[in-house]
Every structure is written in C-alpha cells, then in structure tokens.
Specification:
The protein is mainly β. It has one helix and nine strands, in the order αβββββββββ. The chain has one domain: Sandwich (Jelly Rolls), CATH 2.60.120.10. It has a five-stranded antiparallel sheet with strand order 1-2-9-4-7. The longest helix has 14 residues. InterPro entries: RmlC-like_jellyroll (IPR014710), RmlC_Cupin_sf (IPR011051). This is Cupin domain-containing protein.
C-alpha cells in the first residue's frame, strides 16, 4: 500500500510550476504504462493552458486548488476547489484562471 498527501504534493508542484518556463508541472500519482488507471497531479500558473487535445480514455478532472475552465467545442465548464469535472470524449482544452492544481484521472482505452 502507498499513501500520498495530495495537499503536500499540490503545494510542491505549484511551486515548481511557478518557477518553470512552461508555467506547469506534473507528477504521476498512480499508474504508468503497466496500468490502465493513471492519476496525474498537474499544476498550472495563472493564465497557462493545456492546448486542445484528446484523452487516451475515460477521464475526470478534480480541482484541488485555484480555478480552471474546461473547454469542449462551444461548451465550457468552470471548476473550483472540490469540483469534479467529467472530461468529454473528443478534443478539449484547459485554462488556468488562477494558479491551479488538478488531479487528472484517466482509464486508458484497451
């Protein structure tokens, strides 16, 4: 069994993101190539984005800190701490309205 403090990890990754030229930092919390489930903690500086992309499987996004905007075509959803957003199947993007930390959970397609 493994235990991870998401609060401590969020604090660390947000600090890393603020120093990075890309304005982001990420750490896989669980999963990898040998697992179908992958959970990744992603930190973004305010104003940074994850450009339009497709998921590699079913996915959710849990906002741990800050405010984000998930875009899917003409639709968009605001996310604040404690919100769980279901990521639509298809091209989508994510904008950090404030310095933000999210937990991305993906179940890879077979």
């Amino acid at each position: 069994m493994q235990k991870t403090s998401l609060i401590a990890l969020a604090r660390h990754e947000l600090s890393q993101a603020k120093e990075a030229s890309s304005g982001r930092s990420a750490k896989t919390v669980f999963g990898g190539h040998e697992h179908q489930l992958r959970q990744t903690l992603i930190a973004l500086k305010a104003g940074e984005s994850l450009a339009e992309h497709e998921s590699s499987g079913e996915a959710t996004l849990q906002v741990l800190e800050g405010r984000v905007l998930l875009r899917f075509g003409d639709l968009s959803w605001n996310g604040s701490p404690g919100d769980l957003l279901i990521i639509p199947d298809g091209l989508h993007s994510l904008d950090a309205i404030e310095a933000s930390v999210i937990l991305l959970t993906v179940v890879k397609k077979h």
